[in-house]
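User: My notes are a mess, but here's the protein and zinc ion's SMILES. Can you give me a structure?
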Amino acid sequence: MDGDVVDALATPGRVAAMLRAQGIRTPSGQPDARQLRRLREIRAAAQALTRGAVREYQELARALLGRYSFTLGTSGRLEHEGCGWDGFIVEILLRLVEISESSRLKTCKNPRCRWAFLDDSPSGRRVWCDMSTCGNRDKVARFRSRQRAGSRRRTRAVRA
Ligand SMILES: [Zn+2]
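Assistant: No problem, the inputs look usable. Here's the predicted complex:
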């Protein structure tokens, strides 16, 4: 949001550290150069999706899915046999595909934030990444502009 934007996917060590810092259970060690490339491609696909660039997303996702083999599980879900970082990456990819189908991946409405978030509200109408920060900031701004409008109206009423 402010300050330097650090590319979390710049190096294998950084991506592993970033994921663990967020409490995500990762395979041990670090991804290799090829796996890091896949993670970047997945990120590019997710970014295309949040921008609403559907065709770009589909092309990226199709290319990514073509790199792995899947079987259809008994539950009707796609399953894969990858393990280690490959398995981890395929899981992220499948999650992204599921999200894209539910179209619940959104970008925060706050222009100074623009975080991608998963809308898990029952109505599917969430617009803020977080109600207590971005959502609240907007509510305060709207309240203030309503107050200003109200005082203008009152001033006119007095003059009339
Ligand atoms: Zn936000």
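The mean pLDDT is 83.
User: Great, I'll file this with my notes.
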